[in-house]
Write a structure and sequence with these properties.
CATH class of the largest domain: Alpha Beta
Distance between the termini: 19 Å
Number of domains: 3
Largest sheet: 5 strands, parallel
CATH architecture of the largest domain: 3-Layer(aba) Sandwich
Radius of gyration: 26 Å
Strand order of the largest sheet: 2-1-3-4-5
Shape: globular
């Protein structure tokens, strides 16, 4: 399979109110292997840009309104972090197109379109995007060799998260990871450590939830022999054990106030004193913490020290809940189905379209952790070559109700996000095509659906 550097495969949105003209441009770009989505008005373009992810937007400057193309450009700059935009203009619109370049457009091309010129211009724009894009799908797969392998997803939130992680990993800045339980906060902390200059040293995790002040103090700072009843030998704490490495405190929001003061002192001075000792040890630790609590609210309530809050919040990374990135669910399901099938030495099952649709509709209160358990359960109990709704745990079937069993994605609206499942499904297909450089066979396999089903969906959604 070719890499993007050899034969870039891009997601392109073509916006033109002249149907024939739009089809000609799209077909010229599809012949280069790109995935093109066509719309014919400003409203549809805004809808696609707000729900999809594109590398390039090719838009007519003047449609129903003379400045429609500029509005498409503005929307693309707002909702597409790394996309480029090419303006298609009539001869008299060239000054406006040049002004659009100053406003962020990559370039413009005049009508009548020369397809060779269009292809060259688009290729230059796409290459610019791929060179700049730190978290492109292929680069994410390369990153997996260096510690990001457990972070599965192509949603904008996950791609932005990975980009930020890569930027901050080489530094020593403290990191605060927020998000609901089960979103993978320790996985993110481990990935940051693995990509840091400290990756040859220890990554030391500790969950603060439910620990009393005395136990937590002993865990963090250690003790000397005779420090308390039962202390029959010396023990180094997590700070000393993590020296020159990374210390990760999960659920830091549950830490007692007295311990917060002691933690702050160590973070500011780098000095640790074991319980029962007067000897000071100096430590050099990269500090990462995580919480599912609202620390700002706890500060206001007096339950969390404000000075400690600002000390640990060098950079805040927020992990979205699974219901906020539903388009990643087919990728996650396929990944963990393969993983557990291999562990059980069973054939890797395919994933039915109906099952994927039902899984994307479910709200996942336990997030990725819950999804992993569900997939593991389905792989264990299944004796068929394909996983389908009959393999779902009873509680998920009951939560979804009878309406979800139809698999009619276009008819289901998600209350939490306002997205229709057809919009989620469309983006999941785009992501799979992108990851596999346009290879439909591999994309269908990744999504857990048959090639015929994928071809039908491509036609239904205008993805060619």
């Amino acid at each position: 399979m070719n890499t993007k550097a050899d034969n870039p495969t891009a997601q392109i949105l073509v916006v033109d109110d002249e149907v024939g003209h739009a089809e000609v441009m799209a077909e010229g770009l599809r012949r280069l292997g790109h995935v093109c989505t066509i719309v014919h008005d400003l409203t549809s373009a805004k809808d696609e840009l707000s729900h999809g992810q594109f590398d390039l937007v090719v838009t007519d400057l003047s449609m129903e309104g003379e400045r429609d193309g500029l509005e498409v450009l503005a929307e693309a700059r707002k909702s597409q972090n790394n996309a480029e935009t090419i303006m298609v203009t009539a001869h008299g619109d060239v000054p406006t197109a040049k002004a659009a370049i100053k406003g962020g457009a990559f370039d413009f091309i005049e009508k009548p379109i020369d397809l060779d010129v269009l292809r060259t211009l688009c290729s230059n724009a796409i290459n610019t995007v791929f060179l700049r894009e730190e978290n492109s799908s292929l680069r994410q797969r390369i990153n997996e060799q260096y510690g990001f392998e457990g972070i599965i997803g192509q949603s904008p939130a996950i791609r932005n998260l990975i980009q930020t992680m890569r930027q901050i990993a080489p530094s020593n800045i403290p990191v605060l990871i927020t998000g609901e339980s089960g979103t993978g906060k320790e996985l993110v902390a481990q990935a940051i450590h693995n990509n840091s200059k400290r990756n040859k040293k220890q990554f030391v995790p500790l969950n603060c939830a439910g620990l009393s002040e005395s136990i937590l103090e002993d865990e963090l700072f250690g003790h000397v022999r005779g420090a308390f009843t039962g202390a029959d030998r010396e023990r180094e704490g997590r700070f000393e054990y993590a020296n020159n490495g990374t210390l990760f405190l999960d659920e830091v929001g549950d830490m007692p106030l007295n311990m917060q003061a002691k933690l702050l002192r160590v973070l500011e001075s780098g000095e640790v004193v074991r319980l029962g000792s007067n000897k000071v040890s100096h430590v050099d630790v990269r500090f990462i913490s995580a919480t599912n609590r609202d620390l700002q609210a706890k500060v206001k309530d007096g339950d969390f020290r404000e000075d400690l809050y600002f000390r640990i919040k060098g950079v805040e990374l927020h992990l979205p809940s699974l219901r906020e990135r539903r388009e990643d669910i087919p990728l996650l399901v396929n990944h963990y189905a393969q993983q557990y099938a291999q562990q059980l030495e069973k054939p890797v099952p395919s994933i039915s379209e109906d099952l994927n649709m039902m899984l994307m509709q479910y709200d996942w209160p336990g997030n990725v952790r819950q999804l992993i358990n569900v997939v593991q359960n389905m792989v264990i109990i299944s004796i068929e070559p394909q996983l389908d709704p009959q393999h779902l745990p009873t509680e998920i079937k009951q939560a979804l109700g009878d309406g979800a069993a139809t698999g009619d994605a276009s008819a289901i609206i998600n209350d939490a996000t306002g997205l229709r499942l057809d919009q989620i499904e469309k983006q999941a297909i785009r992501n799979a095509l992108r990851i596999n450089s346009g290879n439909r066979e591999q994309a269908a396999k990744m999504l857990g659906i048959g090639e015929r089903t994928l071809y039908r969906k491509l036609k239904e959604y205008g993805l060619k």
